[in-house]
Amino acid sequence: ILNVEQSPQSLHVQEGDSTNFTCSFPSSNFYALHWYRWETAKSPEALFVMTLNGDEKKKGRISATLNTKEGYSYLYIKGSQPEDSATYLCAFLDSWGKLQFGAGTQVVVTP
Amino acid sequence: DAGVTQSPTHLIKTRGQHVTLRCSPISGHKSVSWYQQVLGQGPQFIFQYYEKEERGRGNFPDRFSARQFPNYSSELNVNALLLGDSALYLCASSLFGLQSNEQFFGPGTRLTVL
Q1: Structure confidence at residue B6 (pLDDT)
Q2: What are the pLDDT digits (tens) for B65-92?
Q3: Residue A41 pLDDT
Q4: Once rounded to an integer, what is the mean pLDDT over residues A37-56?
Q5: What is the sign, positive or negative, of the torsion defined by CA atoms of B38, A50, A56, A52?
Q6: Which of A43, A99, A104 is closest, CB to CB, to B45?
Q7: At B98, is the pLDDT very low, low, confident or very high (cuts 50, 70, 90)?
Q8: Are B2 and B27 contacting, i.e. CB atoms less than 8 angstroms apart?
Q9: pLDDT score at A1
Q10: What is the mean pLDDT of the segment spanning A16-35?
Q11: What distances in angstroms separate CA B110 from CA B7, B36, B39, B48, B98, one per listed residue?
Q12: Do A51 and B105 touch (CB under 8 A)?
């Protein structure tokens, strides 16, 4: 059974601080890793789709790295702002076309 | 531009009934995926359709089925509803398949089974 795990489950960050959290996934049958941001009462919003080992992607203050050999990805938020408060989900796509989400990391940024 | 649309927004059914959920992708998108999300968990992948063919299937019983139409819209059907089918059902579309394309999610259909 494939297992995508995210840690921590939740974290509180002071405005202006930087933070990061982890997504771990099976290192076999890797096809792609997706990151999403899900704000309360909204639809999940795609952040990154990562396909190559060593990939690094950036969107504004948010960036992500990918290590497919050891099966992990980090998401970084630099200089957190209250609008960064959301649940961040990663999803592992295997070579059979099956996409499995982690349970998410809930980020709360306090002013 | 219209985003992904889903109908209905909310739905209440009783055990044993059948339900059909509908999704219209962003114009030009050829892939539609369906997810079930229960409180406290990440979305669970149900199906992916690309060019009207099933390209991926999650661990859901045969009571769940889907199809994609020539205009790329999609339906998710659930037969013999159980209480445990109560969830938010999300549809997402992407230009091509999931391999290298970001998905755009619809607002979801909240299904309650009594």
Answers
A1: 96
A2: 999 999 999 999 999 999 999 999 999 9
A3: 84
A4: 91
A5: positive
A6: A99
A7: low
A8: yes
A9: 45
A10: 94
A11: 10, 10, 12, 20, 24
A12: no
A51 and B41 within 8 Å at the Cβ level: the answer is no
**Contact list, A89 vs chain B (CB under 8 Å):** 42-43
A33 touches chain B (CB under 8 A): no
Asked if residue A68 has pLDDT above 80, the reply is yes
Long-range CB contacts (< 8 A, 24+ apart) of A35-40?
Answer: A35/A64, A35/A73, A35/A75, A35/A88, A35/A89, A35/A90, A35/A91, A36/A88, A36/A89, A36/A90, A36/A91, A37/A86, A37/A87, A37/A88, A37/A89, A38/A86, A38/A87, A38/A88, A38/A89, A38/A104, A39/A85, A39/A86, A39/A87, A40/A86
- Amino acid identity of residue A74, one-letter, is Y
Tokens of A9: 């489950």
Q: Using the structure block, give the residue that is written with the tokens 């394309």.
A: B101
